[in-house]
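Duplicate of earlier report; Type III restriction enzyme, res subunit domain protein input re-posted below.
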Amino acid sequence: MGQFKTQERLIFPRYHQFDAVTKMLADAKANGAGMNYLCEHSAGSGKTSTIAWTAHGLTRLRYDDGEPYFHGVIIVTDRTVLDAQLQEAVS
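Output:
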């Protein structure tokens, strides 16, 4: 059978993505666990990357003593296509 190759590439956020991620992480650091965030971007604007970067950022937030702010992050979507995209982006 054929061979499968995995290609990795570095993706830089556009301004609106960077702004959204930065603001959500700052709010999460200020308010801690238990908050809900809604990220609305237009079609094709990179919502999947914005959500993935935010999820990774939340898992990296640490208190001064090194203890994590969050031990897990739950992402809720309303579309099965987005579920598959996010699983790939976050993994």
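The helical segments are 15-31, 47-60, 80-90.

Merging into the original ticket.
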